[in-house]
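Please decode residue identities from the backbone states below.
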């Protein structure tokens, strides 16, 4: 009986060990599957066919380089998937982060990247990977700085937009005038154009966004003049001594900068020099956005935006879409390495920088210095537009890196619209707006 009991116990022990081994084998298999899944990064990206071809091309090059080539770093089970994104806002991404479904890499407007970075939702690439030290110098400075806040870097710049100055050369030649390069010349040339028997509904000048606020972006219109008048949105001084701009109060209502800038816009409207819509096709002179590069059908000439105040640079406004790594990503290093590759390298199949290929099809500008050089479109007008745009890009200011920027833009929209319509005096409209912005900033950037 004793022998039977011993034998029975041995059988039980063996079965237990066998089940344990089976259980371990299953666990190992689950871990292997999990590891395979964790090697896939997802990227917010345009779903247009050409854009998908580009990013897949970039991934194929990256895969070869980082699993088999000179930069071998990862196993061959890494993968990349694209998902539709929302580059112009933060709500979708914030919901995905809360729900645990956020992508690893996003491509978004720099303002939203900075806002999300400050709130801890995006990775500080400088702190984590020393991005400033390693790759910053490859990019146009204004584009790189757009996605930074204090000593943190939240995005790698990709495609950019700015606004330049241009005119219809044939008409200017007929009237006997040249493209104005300062405000005084703009008034003079606009007056001569107005009295030169222009066709009906043709105006001397169109400001970006127009001045009829039913059709326009008054904030952008105002800011171009504000910068060139020597002003800014917020206090950019370092009064608290921490080495960074304070950005703690509105300064766009300064009588010597913001108010004068707004008054100059209003004068153009009152003189009848400005088209009431944003459509440059019904004007001789205009502020031209980068995305209009392929829309010109007649002889044009371009230059930097005109001087508004003597001694102040001919600033424009900058918009940059940057690549960022979401803080909840479990593949942060892989996500960062691919973002850097996409933003800085050439395609092995086309020998073009990925940035340049993308911007060529989207009428935007590369932020990578090497991707901006020696471009020939085989068209004199496009070449002129491109060269001036690249020069203007380096002389462009980005919107303030504060998380409440969307609300600031709304407040300014209302104030500038009221002044242009004549509902309020410029100083009163801007003072009221500044008070609202200061209240937002006092809450910690909104």
């Amino acid at each position: 009986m004793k022998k039977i009991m011993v034998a029975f116990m041995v059988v039980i022990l063996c079965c237990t060990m066998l089940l344990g081994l089976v259980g371990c084998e299953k666990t190992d298999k689950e871990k292997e599957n999990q590891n395979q899944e964790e090697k896939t990064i997802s990227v917010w990206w345009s779903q247009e066919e050409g854009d998908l071809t580009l990013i897949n091309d970039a991934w194929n090059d990256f895969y070869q380089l980082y699993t088999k080539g000179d930069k071998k770093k990862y196993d061959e089970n890494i993968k990349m998937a694209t998902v539709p994104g929302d580059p112009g806002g933060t709500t979708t991404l914030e919901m995905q982060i809360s729900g645990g479904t956020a992508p690893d890499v996003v491509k978004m407007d720099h303002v939203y990247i900075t806002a999300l970075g400050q709130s801890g939702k995006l990775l500080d690439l400088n702190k984590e990977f020393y991005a400033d030290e390693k790759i910053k110098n490859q990019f146009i400075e204004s584009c790189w700085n757009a996605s930074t806040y204090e000593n943190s870097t939240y995005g790698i710049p990709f495609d950019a937009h700015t606004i330049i100055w241009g005119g219809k050369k044939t008409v200017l030649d007929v009237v006997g005038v040249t493209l104005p390069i300062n405000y005084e010349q703009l008034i003079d040339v606009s007056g001569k154009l107005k009295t030169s028997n222009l066709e009906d509904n043709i105006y001397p000048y169109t400001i970006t966004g127009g001045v009829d606020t039913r059709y326009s972006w008054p904030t952008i219109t105002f800011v171009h003049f504000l910068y060139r008048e020597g002003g800014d949105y917020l206090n950019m001084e370092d009064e608290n001594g921490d080495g960074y701009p304070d950005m703690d109060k509105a300064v766009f209502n300064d009588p010597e900068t913001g108010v004068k800038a707004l008054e100059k816009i209003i004068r153009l409207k009152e003189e009848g020099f400005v088209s009431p819509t944003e459509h440059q096709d019904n004007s001789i002179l205009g502020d031209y956005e980068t995305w209009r590069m392929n829309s010109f059908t007649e002889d044009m000439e371009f230059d930097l935006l005109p001087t508004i105040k003597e001694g102040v640079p001919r600033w424009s406004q900058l918009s940059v879409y940057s690549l960022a790594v979401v803080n909840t990503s479990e593949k942060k290093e892989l996500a960062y390495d691919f973002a850097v590759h996409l933003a800085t390298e050439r395609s092995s199949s086309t020998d073009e920088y990925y940035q340049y290929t993308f911007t060529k099809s989207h009428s935007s500008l590369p932020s990578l210095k090497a991707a901006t050089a020696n471009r020939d479109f085989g068209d004199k007008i496009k070449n002129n537009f491109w060269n001036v745009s690249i020069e203007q890009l380096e002389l462009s200011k980005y919107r303030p890196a504060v998380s409440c920027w969307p609300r600031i833009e709304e407040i300014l929209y209302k104030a500038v619209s009221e002044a242009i319509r004549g509902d309020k005096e410029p100083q009163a409209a801007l003072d009221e707006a500044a008070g609202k912005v200061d209240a937002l900033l006092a809450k910690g950037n909104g």
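Observation: The CA atoms of residues 36 and 77 lie 6 Å apart.
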